[in-house]
Write a structure and sequence with these properties.
Elements lengths: L11 H14 L8 H14 L3 E7 L3 E8 L5 E3 L5 H7 L3 E3 L12 H4 L6 E8 L5 E9 L7 H25 L9 H17 L3 E9 L2 H8 L1 H18 L5 E6 L2 E8 L6 H18 L7 E7 L8 H8 L7 H4 L13
Antiparallel strand pairs: 1-2, 1-6, 2-3, 4-5, 5-6, 7-9, 7-10, 8-9
Amino acid sequence: MRKDLSNTDLPFDLERRRIRALETLNILDTPKEELFDRHTRLIQRVLNTPIAWFSLIDENRVCYKSSQGILLDDTPRADSLCELALANDSLLVIEDTQAIPALANSNFVSKEHAFRFYAGRPIKDNQGYCLGVLAVVDFEPRKLASDEAELLEHIAELIEFDIHLAQQTTLDPLTGLSNLRGFENSACHIVALCDRSQCEATLVSFELIDLPGINATHGHEAGDLALNAFGKLLVETFRACDVISRVNSDRFIVLLSHGDNVDIHMPIRRFLIKLAEFNEAVQSPHMIDANISYLHYEKQAHGSINKLLAASDQHIQVSNAELFNPKPETKEFIPS
């Protein structure tokens, strides 16, 4: 158990990547599944605890993907015991929550029917990012025996295996970004939101210039390094809520949601500056460059993410003059 439970903040960049990994899975705010329910039922039974759950932790909430012994959809992250397990990064056991001063103000600890015992093991994706927690809870203080801890670890590994299988179908194995299927799964929610509200969406396309030439001249390892670097620069530039994907060998796309009359060129300019800085710092024998184009989503013209993708194959490349000379009437695009 961690000695200091008062500081649960994760480094900003790590938290940003963690949230993106969680959103890429596309399982937040989805119905409970038997796939995960059988794991929480099993750990509840074998450890003989009244409550067990598998939670997912987003920016502000703990969402309960599966729960036994308690009916919960989500709770504030700041008040959650799972926040402690997330920061702990390994199995966290609290034998008596009321003996921990840092938990005195938690609603789960201070009120009637308080959680007195908690054991939570972080659930990680195949890149090591913590997505949520498998936890067991009791209303009485207790210890967790070594064989019980091993069982909790084993069930957590089974959940991770199920998640890894899902990731294999939606993630690009080289860059760790969404593949086309993963993009379609995530982007459809943004398009649906735009259809219901006043926000807009824009699809930005980046096609690497002469990737086959890099592979032929410098080898496929150099090409893979270029693709990885390009993907990381996209992640650093765009927001955690934007959907970033590698959809074929040399094409990346980003779907952004935003207000009306926003200068969509701003994040693209920011990316190009980062790309130029990267090329200058690395001084590789080959420069990484890309053709960039974008297309605004329109419900009547497109109607679905698949039609938007099809239309994006024909949209026009953005010139440097357009990118670096924004229209005066546009609003600033605010990154998060």
